[in-house]
Amino acid sequence: MSENVFLVPVDPENFDRTVRSAVDLTEYDDRPEPLAAVDEARLWAVSDGSGNDSTFERMGPDDLLLFYHDGEYVATGRVGETFADEDRWVSGTFWTAFPTTRVYTVESFTPVSVPKRGVNTIFDYSASYTPGFMRVADSRVTRDLSTIETALDAYTKKNRPADD
């Protein structure tokens, strides 16, 4: 069983296009082999370089993903399949200004709305800490991954405006 947690920054435009909404892949005959038998997928990636390579290599099926933007965690998910997209087909087909070869599918996607300080508390970071793409150190993951997901979902429901 995997116990990795990854904190993943997102840009809303690309994230909305390929994670918040699953991508219909049936109209693309030229998609990469790892997506060949899949009709629909939520797709995200890691920027090439900047030390991200080794972090990406540690990603495995069912690892927990916590997506954040502008001081807020906006979704959770689990890693599906990771693959090298050497032709940059995914980034060239779906994203603007995000050329990359390190792609992964996102399973069990759940929108959340949790302030950065709330997640920082879970992993014993300072309230103002803002990570880049990173794997949370094992010593900071002191709860079961499903417990973390449940806590973030519960916070979101408790703090949702009444008109939602």
Could you name the key traits of this structure?
about 160 residues, six-stranded mixed beta sheet, two-stranded antiparallel ribbon, 5 helices, about 30% strand
Structural summary, described in words:
The structure is a single chain. The protein contains 5 helices and 8 strands; from the N terminus they run βαβββαββαβαβα. It is of the alpha+beta class. The mean pLDDT is 92. The termini are far apart. The strands form 2 sheets. The chain has a 6-stranded mixed beta sheet. A two-stranded antiparallel sheet has the order 2-3. A hairpin with a 2-residue loop joins strand 5 and strand 6 (72-84).
- Helical fraction: 25-40%
**End-to-end span in angstroms?**
35 Å
- Write down the overall mean pLDDT: 92
CATH class call:
Alpha Beta
Number of strands: 8
Helix and strand string, N-terminal first?
EHEEEHEEHEHEH
Low-pLDDT parts are none
List the helices and strands and how they pair.
Elements: E1 5-9, H1 12-20, E2 23-24, E3 40-41, E4 43-46, H2 52-57, E5 64-69, E6 72-84, H3 89-94, E7 102-115, H4 116-122, E8 134-135, H5 145-158
Parallel strand pairs: 1-5
Antiparallel strand pairs: 1-8, 2-3, 4-7, 5-6, 6-7
